[in-house]
Amino acid sequence: MRVITSVRAMKAAASRLKDAGRTIGLVPTMGYLHRGHLSLVRASKRAADVTVVSIFVNPAQFGPREDLKAYPRDLERDARLLRGEGADILFHPRPGDMYPTGYKTYVEVHELQNKLCGVSRPIHFRGVCTVVLKLFHIVRPDRAFFGQKDAQQAVILRRMVRDLDLDVRVDVRPIVREPDGLALSSRNAYLSPEERRAALVLTRSLKEAKISVSRGERRASAVLARLRARIAAEPPARLDYAAVVDPEELEPLKRIDRRALVALAVFIGRTRLIDNVTVRPGKKESPDKEKAR
Ligand code: AMP
């Protein structure tokens, strides 16, 4: 695996690969890798000739009171994991190379960036879109791989790619979870053992929402009320938001009569965690069938 730390060298490597007719898969990450990230690397390995994994803790997507400095980092371990997966290039640029002095240009996907996580993180998605567009120009991927864990991010990036006619296919892969259901996240490293137990409230409340919709609940307000109550009952947990939205426009739904995204963000102590499930109205089961099980 080649480790590249300058934008110029990465652009040169990408040009050579494109000239040789090789397809490039890109997995953008902030490092401190876990099995969720590695599932994206595997997907890229299957789909493209060359897999580039970027590790860049992107200052532009952190608000002034967020955890940019504290964000966990372990490049050596990450590199080892990526070698094990057979990644071809690790791109690890320096912040000053990505955002040189005088940097002024940002990309915004209006409206979608202000909903859900955008309410409490107002500059977050502008930072994400800007860095991902820069990575697309530098790495020139044919395909780019993202996780459904960050559902709003995936929706916004798809829209950016469509709106700006970018020649890259966005692949969104399922959420990878711990055996007990907690969605893997680099930020799980912040949790104390007690918080780690409390964090399961995200998984459990979303699972309950999914079951209630499959059993016929159509009122988003009822689903959300149960979800909020569950989270309120778990003291170190504090709800940032919970929402039932249309999966493309992220507009709140009143009735769940088509596919919907149930998304939430919860502070566990000082750690903000996100998770989501997609729900589909199932057929209402007849009482007989219900009894038979
Ligand atoms: P991050 O390093 O947190 O910026 O994440 C990099 C990529 O990995 C993003 O596309 C995330 O959506 C994805 N990702 C993070 N956690 C998971 C997970 N548990 N399962 C699948 N993908 C994930």
Characterization of this structure:
- The chain is of the alpha/beta class.
- It folds into two domains: 2-173, Rossmann fold; 186-292, 2-Layer Sandwich (Pantoate--beta-alanine Ligase, Chain: A,domain 2), CATH 3.30.1300.
- Helix content is 39%, strand content 19%.
- The protein is built from eleven helices and nine strands.
- Strands 1-4-3-2-5-6 form a six-stranded parallel sheet, with helices on both faces. Strands 7-8-9 form a three-stranded antiparallel sheet.
- Helix 6 crosses helix 7.
- The longest helix is centred in the middle third of the chain and has 16 residues, at 124-139.
- It is globular, with a radius of gyration of 20 Å.
- The structure holds adenosine monophosphate (AMP).
Write the layout of secondary structure elements.
Elements lengths: L1 E3 L2 H13 L4 E6 L5 H13 L2 E6 L19 H11 L3 E3 L3 H4 L18 H4 L3 H16 L3 E5 L3 H13 L5 E5 L19 H6 L1 H15 L5 H13 L4 E9 L14 E9 L2 E9 L7 H6 L1
Parallel strand pairs: 1-4, 2-3, 2-5, 3-4, 5-6
Antiparallel strand pairs: 7-8, 8-9
Helix pairs in contact: 6-7, 9-10
The structure holds adenosine monophosphate.
The H-level CATH homologous superfamily of the largest domain, spelled out, is: HUPs
Mean pLDDT across residues: 96
Percent of sequence in beta strands: 15-25%
Shape: globular
pLDDT below 50 for ≥5 consecutive residues: which ranges? 285-293
* Alpha plus pi helix count: 11
Order of helices and strands: EHEHEHEHHHEHEHHHEEEH
CATH architecture of the largest domain: 3-Layer(aba) Sandwich
State the share of residues found in helices, binned by percent: 25-40%
> How are the strands ordered across the major sheet?
1-4-3-2-5-6
Radius of gyration: 20 Å
Number of domains: 2
